[in-house]
Amino acid sequence: QVQLVESGGGLVQAGGSLRLSCAASGRTFSSYAMGWFRQAPGKEREFVSAINWNGGRTYYADSVQGRFTISRDNAKNTVCLQMNSLKPEDTAVYYCARFYSSSYYADADVTYWGQGTQVTVSS
Question: How would you classify the pairing of strands 46-51 and 58-60?
Fold first, then answer.
């Protein structure tokens, strides 16, 4: 059983930064693409970013492109999301996700989810 544990959420003012981390259990972390999704109150969960198995390719939603950076450390079984220039509309619960393959193809290909971490950006 794979467990994903997020950390790093919190309250920040608009324009500030946060760094989210996700620690994954298991020995096969480096075999899978990883990603981040978010869900704001009253809205559906949406894709934020993804990274393939070796970090060689990254993907971003248009709304965060240029502000967020995803990275991974396969030696430490972690994936991070550096969030800069935060906006109030970035307020959401952020979820770490593991995809079923080594590359990201579609949002529906998530096989494991973390429990989520709250990010609140004040104006």
Answer: antiparallel
